[in-house]
Structures are given as C-alpha cells and as structure tokens.
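sorry to bug you again but im stuck and you know this stuff better than me. what follows is a protein written twice so to speak, once as letters and once as structure tokens for the fold. id like you to explain what the token line says about the fold, in plain words if possible. anything you notice is useful, everything is just below.
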Amino acid sequence: MSDMFLQKFRDVVPKHLSTPWETEDGLTHAVLDAELAHPVPLALREFYQALGNSELMEAYYFFWDPDELEHDEGYLLFLEDEEEEHTWGIRVDQIDVPDPLVWRRNNAKGSWICEEGTFSEFVLDYFDWVFSDEDDDED
C-alpha cells in the first residue's frame, strides 16, 4: 500500500517548526515493527514514520511512543493531556480502517465521545491549534 498520509505528517515540521523535515524526525519501519505490540491503523503508523522521533511528540499534550500504546475499554490509546484529564484513542474494532475516527475519554467520568474527525484530520488540526497565534483569534 502506498503512503497515504506520510507527506501530510512530514509537512507539519516545516509548517510549525520552520525547519525542514529530516529522516531523524521519524521512526523507521524496522523500529516500528519491533516496538508496536498492537496492530495500528495506517494513519497512526505513518504518523510515527513521519514524527515519532520529533519534538512534536510532546508539543503541549503527549503522544505515546509506539511501545507504550495500550488497549483499554475497547480503545487503542495514543494521546494524553498534561493533567491526565483526557485520553484519546481509536476504537479497536476500527483498527483495520486506514484513517479511523478519534475518540476522547474523560478520565474522571470514564465516558467516551467522538471527536468527529479521523486520525489524520485530528492530528493536523491538533498541531494547528497548538501552534496557533492567539493574536489571530482576537481579530
């Protein structure tokens, strides 16, 4: 299968860090194969290939390293906020979907809500939000 999302994720580096993407920003197929204990959707795998070794993994919230991914309550968890109030995941029954919907759990309540976007949409919107200039919102 061809790379469907890889270049979009690579483009995050120059867009938000103003430096060119470099091979060292991502993880190789061999590293991913060794570290992934669970099957993951294509979009998540290509995210790690593009950004899995970059500083963007901890830009505001914390994307879990491939060897830290876990299943919980029928979801594959991949992101957590700094206060550990929310965790983001993908439904395990959607792992075979190349770009599945993202869900958010309120950790205190244990309730899940759909973010209404696919993994690739969520990630690209997330980085736009993290690196948005607050002055742009005031106009």
In short: Strands lie at 62-63, 70-72, 75-80, 86-91, 101-106, 111-118. The mean pLDDT is 93.
